[in-house]
Each structure stands twice: as structure tokens, then as C-alpha cells.
Amino acid sequence: MLKIKNLHASVEDKGILRGINLEVNPGEVHAIMGPNGSGKSTLASVIAGKEEYEVEQGEIFFEGEDINELAAEERAHKGVFLSFQYPVEIPGVSVTNFMKTAINETRKAKGLEEMPANEMLKMIREKSELLEIDRKFLSRSLNEGFSGGEKKRNEIFQMAMLEPKLAILDETDSGLDIDALRIVANGVNKLKSKDNAVIVITHYQRLLDYIVPDYVHVLHQGKIVKSGPKELAHELEEKGYDWIKEEANA
Ligand code: ADP
Ligand code: MG
Ligand code: MG
């Protein structure tokens, strides 16, 4: 599904990613961990195609297609979802209406007609029930006065509605409390299938107790310096990152 080869990328002329190789197949969950500033969010942004990030070398293939030249929006339409990609706060636009627009824009880009209203309602009902989101929440103004947990809930709802092939969840800056952690984990677990894949970026081993990854990768100074099974996350929790840095520099 996703194949990244020798990716080098910079932001504001500063080299951040220095030779990333990563392969993600359908049905897999990959966790990306690593110290602050190691390039985790940059990697997520580059995959999603955020404009500020410059690819200097290497390739990104999504379902066999080189997507490097595609705009973020086009990648989203192909099924790449990055959390926090959408506007922070839109007063007067409800969670539901924002979602309707996003879905119909995606359909339009694919040459499809708007989703019939009854079908849309059915989908909203199904997904919100699955994620235990109540009606009141759906009619609230997007992100206005949302708590951390409600932001997470909205994000997971967006993911559920858009049914991405590849979801990238970058949780590093959010200071997830227990509720938010559970919302993210339950959402991901319920939406996981053999056809889609998830990349979870996290500082918290705790999250990986709920979302069990198939692979854990450690990013350090813009490179994946170690990959392993889920137990690697436990080892990191116990020993920190110093031993990884030493190994990487040896
Ligand atoms: P992580 O998510 O692992 O903490 P980031 O990818 O956010 O790391 O950041 C890696 C490095 O890139 C940091 O030194 C950060 O300051 C820099 N960086 C990231 N995004 C930007 C940006 N938009 N403008 C300037 N510097 C950035
Ligand atoms: Mg950071
Ligand atoms: Mg980050």
C-alpha cells in the first residue's frame, strides 16, 4: 500500500528526514516512536503532502503510484488520511455538516454524484453508533470549545466517515488523557480491517497496549534506526531512547 524509499525531506531549507525506508501493507498497524524533534510529524506531513515540506530525494508510492507530485487534497482523495489535517475551528458549521461537505467533495473529485441524503444519514448513524458518539455532539459547531477528548472523537469520526485506506494518526502533541486515549484506541480497533492500514505516531507506550501494532519503528535524527515487533515499544518504555541513540551512532 505504502512504500517509501530513501526519503530525504526538508522544511524551510532545514534537512529533517535523512533516508527513510518504510513499507506498509494492507491490514497492518505500524507505530512510529522516537524522541522529540526526531522527525515523526515531518514524516506524517510528507506522506500526506503538506506544502511546506520539500522532498529532496527518494520516492513515496501509494498503491503502486508515485504520489510525490500530488497535492495533499489529491492524496486525501486517494485514501490517505492524516489526523489534524482539517481546520481547527469553524464556528457555525456543525460536525455533521462539515463531514457531509468533505464526503461530497471527495466524491466529486472521483467523478461521483453527491451522496443521497438518506444514505448519508444512514452512514452518519452507523458510524456514530459504532464509535458511541451521541447526537448532540454531531450538531455542535466544529471544534468550537471542544475538549481534548472531543477533538479526538471528532477526528476519529472523520476517519470513520472518510474510510481511508491509510490513516496516519499523529498524537504527539495532544497530551492524551485516559479518555482520549480510549477514544482513539477504540475507534482505530473498530475501523481496522484487512484492507486498510494505520500508522500511529505516539510517545505513549500506553496507547500501544490498546492499539497493538504489528511493527514498531524508532525514528532518530530523521532516520528509522530500529524496527521491531510490539515488544520494542515496551523495551523503549523501560529503557528510554538513549540505548537506541548509542546503537545508531556506533
Ligand atoms: P517530532 O514530531 O518527532 O517531534 P518534528 O517532525 O515535529 O519532530 O520536527 C523535526 C524537526 O523539524 C524539528 O527540529 C522541528 O523544529 C523542525 N520542523 C518541523 N516542522 C517545521 C516547520 N514547519 N518549520 C520549521 N521547522 C520545522
Ligand atoms: Mg514535536
Ligand atoms: Mg510531532
From TrEMBL:
Record-annotated ABC transporter domain positions: 2-246
Domain of life (superkingdom): Bacteria
Keyword Calcium among UniProt keywords: no
Keyword Chloroplast: no
Record-level Gene Ontology MF annotations: ATP binding; ATP hydrolysis activity
Keywords assigned by UniProt, alphabetized: ATP-binding, Nucleotide-binding
UniProt xrefs under Gene3D superfamilies: P-loop containing nucleotide triphosphate hydrolases
Alphabetical list of InterPro entries matching this protein: AAA+_ATPase, ABC_transporter-like_ATP-bd, FeS-cluster_ATPase_SufC, P-loop_NTPase
Pfam families: ABC_tran
Signal peptide location: none
Family that this chain belongs to: Belongs to the ABC transporter superfamily. Ycf16 family.
Protein name: Cysteine desulfurase
